[in-house]
Amino acid sequence: MAKSKKIEIKGTIITVLSNDNGDHISLTEMLQAKDGDFFISDWLRNRNTVEFLGIWESVNNPAFNYGEFAIIKSQAGLNNYKISVKEWTEKTNAIGLKATAGRYGGTYAHVDIAFEFGMWISAEFKVYLIKEFKRLKEEESNRLKTNWDFQRTLSKINYRIHTDAIKDNLIPAELEKKHTTLIYADEADVLNMALFGKTAKQWKKENTNKKGNIRDYATIEQLVVLSNMESTNALLIHQKFEQSHRLLQLNQLAIIQMKSLLSHQRGINKLLSND
Which part of the chain is the KilA-N domain (predicted)? Predict the structure, then answer.
């Protein structure tokens, strides 16, 4: 039986349902925080959304219908293309999204997908969503007398899609041409270079007095950007882009998103200080 909890994101009350299949967050209620007339179907018709959902399902759903997915993917982004959550789930046997009726009626998404949807609302909204979800899980953990490591949980969002890498809360520098021509054996170092301008090995060499590795020193802003970079890089790999091209795209993405998050730094720091 699903357990229902409520979290509040900047005045918007959002339902979180938890059961044996994990945590699911109401997209219908999240949508109330977006300015203007928008619908979940608007998000679902976006090509990047469809590709992300397809990768998530391929990792988590053995029964995913790739044939139907290929048809939907070929139509995504066209002016006359439109698909509902019900049609998406029925055609592809998807499990990440679900439309429900009754007491907890609406569209719900697995927490992995809900965080991705949060970025569509706004970068700031996603930060608050992650923060409140963290608080909820910590409260549950305290009641159960168990530990809940938020950083590790968040990094599992895209665990099989990608790996992670983290450093200081700084806007990344634009990479020099010499960096883009190098071949990085580990895809994690592609993200390291895009976000921090160095590989994991270089970071370790510069921080011999620190335990762990580069991914153990994360801020919540970095986790937000990293999560988006992981998803984007997975899509670019899927689209057969060369590593040098992906590195440039990821570097620009990191710069833009960190600037956006840092522009809200005062509000975010005030939120984090309430821990």
Answer: 3-136
